Amino acid sequence: MVLCTLLGAVSAWAQESPSSGGSTAAQVPAPVTPAPSAHVEAGHASQGEKASHTVTPVKQGAHASRYHPDRFAGRAGTYYRLIWGVEGLGVKWAESGEVIRFSYRVLDPEKAKTLNEKRNEPSLIDPQAGVQLVVPSMEQIGPLRQSGAPEAGKAYWMTFSNKGRLVKRGDHVSVVIGNFRADGLVVD
Fold first, then answer.
1. What is the phi-psi region of residue 113: left when phi exceeds 0, alpha when psi lies from -120 to 50, beta otherwise?
2. HSE-CB of 182 using CA atoms within 13 angstroms
3. Which of 85, 87, 166, 88 is closest to 125 using CA atoms?
4. Are 100 and 187 a contacting pair, CB within 8 Å?
5. All CATH 2.60.40 domain ranges in the chain, comma separated
6. pLDDT tens figures, 24-73
7. What CA–CA distance (Å, rounded) separates 95 from 184?
8. Burial of 96 by CB count in 10 Å (0-12 exposed, 13-18 middle, 19+ buried)?
9. CATH class of domain segment(s) 75-186
């Protein structure tokens, strides 16, 4: 604020000084326009300063975007819908990273039958970490996956054990279930 007042006084002095004195004109400093500052606000502007120099600090990344792009837009989405009868494929990091959850929504139960067959052993492959995860089987419950006949419009899931948290968020993974293979899934 002191700097703004001082600059305003210098600017006013430069405008009032005589310009017809030959040598005095060379000694008068040119008016200085202050650089925008985060400390200058509309209520604290001095007389020599214009309100156009009012600057408010901008917070970087203050509002995170809620936009989530379709993971399989275009050809890939059409491929999974037409060939395998599924959409909305997603891989999420769950339970503090101890479990990776793969989910999908069935459009055509006949085409999606391969994904729910018990005899097809699913695996999640992460080439970045160099691991292949499997669906764990609990003594009392059995495998942590849905294996009934698929129904149109319903969402299905399966979990993969990520012991040691080798698969991280942001990794590009592949899910293989029998003949079905989904490449390039991003772990959320």
1. alpha
2. 31
3. 166
4. yes
5. 75-186
6. 444 555 555 555 544 444 444 455 545 555 555 555 555 555 655 556 66
7. 22
8. exposed
9. mainly beta
Residue 12 neighbours by CB distance under 10 Å: 14
Alpha carbon distance 163, 157 (integer Å): 19
Confidence band for 123, pLDDT divided at 50, 70 and 90: very high
Band the pLDDT of 20: cuts 50, 70, 90: very low
CA distance 62 to 40: 21
- Is the separation of the CB atoms in 74 and 49 below 8 Å? no
CB 144 within 8 A of CB 158: yes
SS3 of the chain: helix, strand, coil, percent, to 5: 25, 25, 50
The Cα 58–Cα 33 span in angstroms is: 22
